[in-house]
């Protein structure tokens, strides 16, 4: 195989590759724009997703996970970096090209009520993307909308109603039907179950999992807690103050976390039997998230890390491969297997 062919093979190994992605917001308040200040919402993120897989992105509010999703889908423009979708850099596309690319990349939002136009009936909401992209019209359009209602488990009679007439779970199904209309390859799900009751959450998660198999979908699944991503993700990226601090296959991340922040997030998951919380006591995640406008130097997590040393305050740790395949961590002193880790998390 020639060198060029080998590189081409590598570049198409992933449906999506994110390299050095940055999104900085100018938050300068001083008159005449002196002393520029930037909120570094996303500050050098690297991610990759294979076709048909789900990448979970987790972290506390303000860690930059939703901004990452919005930049990947070009709802926001990046400050720097590349987002390669099937090898093509989405950051270089103009507005017209991006509109065309929306057929392949869709979003499902946290609050379906605010993302669905309250004045449009369900039929129009689902038909809108099909009309905008001239996919179908007339009786074929009606058929397609009804098919999409079937796919997400909603009755055809719902097509005549307005969003406010539905429960949160039903509204999220409408949002999913709308996202599916253009037969996308990638769906970015931004906290799709966070606003729903626990019993409804699992129904929506099961629906997303079924649709993934049926339509060979690839998901980015953004959530603020680990439990929601555990059941749906193949890999999980943990973000802290605009950076990915750990990226690993889901099972490895939960059973052998290497970053102290991930360990803290796992420890914060409620367990039904407190005796399962065997090896560590107390809350590992103390203190608030520092301001992303003025993050701590070196390792951003050093102000909250129980294992911080001098080096952590000075030198930024890079996201590096570990000896475990596919497991990357950004920590000068990654945790050893079993160190300080709770057993039997749900
Ligand atoms: Fe903690 Fe240091 Fe690792 Fe940061 S680099 S997570 S402060 S041990």
Protein described:
The protein is 31% helix and 20% strand. The protein has 346 residues and is an alpha/beta fold. It has a domain at 15-104 and 222-346: P-loop containing nucleotide triphosphate hydrolases (Rossmann fold, 3-Layer(aba) Sandwich), CATH 3.40.50. The strands form 2 sheets. An 8-stranded mixed β-sheet has the order 6-7-8-3-9-10-12-11, sandwiched between helices. A hairpin with a 2-residue loop joins strand 4 (80-85) and strand 5. Helix 5 (122-132) packs across helix 6 and helix 5 (122-132) runs parallel beside helix 7. The radius of gyration is 21 Å and the shape is globular. Bound molecules: iron/sulfur cluster. Iron/sulfur cluster binds at residues 259-260, 299, 301-302, 305, 307-308, 312, 317, 331-333.
Reported CATH architecture of the domain at 15-104 and 222-346: 3-Layer(aba) Sandwich
Strand content is 15-25%
SS element count, helices: 12
- Outline: globular
**Fraction of helical residues:** 25-40%
Mean pLDDT: 88
Distance between the termini: 46 Å
Number of strands: 12
Major beta sheet summary: 8 strands, mixed
* SS content category: alpha/beta
Which regions are unreliable across 5 or more consecutive residues at pLDDT < 50? 1-10, 340-346
Strand-helix topology:
Elements (H helix, E strand, L loop, with lengths): L2 H9 L4 E11 L11 E12 L4 E5 L6 H8 L7 E6 L2 E2 L5 H7 L3 E4 L3 H4 L6 H11 L5 H14 L16 H13 L5 E5 L7 H18 L2 E6 L2 H5 L4 E6 L2 E7 H6 L4 H8 L42 H5 L5 E2 L6 E2 L17
Parallel strand pairs: 3-8, 3-9, 6-7, 7-8
Antiparallel strand pairs: 1-2, 1-4, 4-5, 9-10, 10-12, 11-12
Iron/sulfur cluster binds next to loops.
């Amino acid at each position: 195989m020639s060198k060029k062919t080998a590189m081409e093979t590598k570049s198409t190994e992933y449906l999506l590759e994110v390299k050095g992605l940055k999104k900085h917001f100018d938050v300068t308040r001083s008159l005449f724009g002196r002393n520029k200040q930037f909120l570094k919402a996303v500050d050098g993120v690297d991610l990759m997703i294979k076709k048909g897989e789900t990448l979970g992105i987790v972290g506390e509010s303000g860690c930059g996970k939703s901004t990452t999703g919005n930049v990947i889908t070009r709802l926001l423009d990046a400050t720097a970096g590349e987002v390669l979708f099937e090898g093509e850099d989405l950051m270089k596309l103009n507005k017209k090209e991006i509109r065309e690319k929306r057929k392949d990349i869709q979003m499902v939002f946290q609050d379906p009520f605010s993302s669905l136009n309250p004045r449009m009936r369900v039929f129009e909401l689902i038909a809108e993307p099909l009309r905008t992209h001239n996919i179908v019209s007339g009786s074929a359009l009606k058929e397609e909308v009804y098919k999409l209602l079937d796919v997400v488990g909603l009755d055809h009679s719902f097509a005549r109603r307005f969003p406010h007439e539905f429960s949160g779970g039903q509204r999220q199904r409408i949002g999913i039907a709308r996202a599916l209309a253009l037969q996308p390859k990638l769906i970015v799900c931004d906290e799709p179950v966070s606003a729903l009751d626990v019993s409804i959450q699992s129904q929506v998660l099961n629906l997303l999992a079924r649709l993934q198999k049926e339509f060979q979908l690839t998901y980015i699944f953004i959530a603020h807690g680990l439990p929601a991503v555990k059941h749906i993700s193949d890999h999980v990226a943990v973000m802290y103050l605009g950076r990915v601090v750990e990226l690993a296959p889901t099972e490895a991340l939960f059973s052998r976390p290497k970053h102290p922040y991930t360990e803290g997030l796992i420890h914060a998951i409620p367990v039904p039997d407190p005796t399962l919380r065997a090896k560590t006591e107390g809350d590992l995640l103390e203190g608030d998230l520092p301001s992303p406008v003025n993050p701590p130097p070196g390792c951003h997590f050093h102000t909250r890390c129980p294992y911080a040393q001098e080096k952590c305050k000075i030198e930024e740790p890079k996201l590096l491969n570990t000896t475990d395949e596919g497991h990357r961590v950004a920590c000068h002193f990654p945790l050893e297997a079993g160190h300080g880790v709770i057993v039997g998390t749900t």
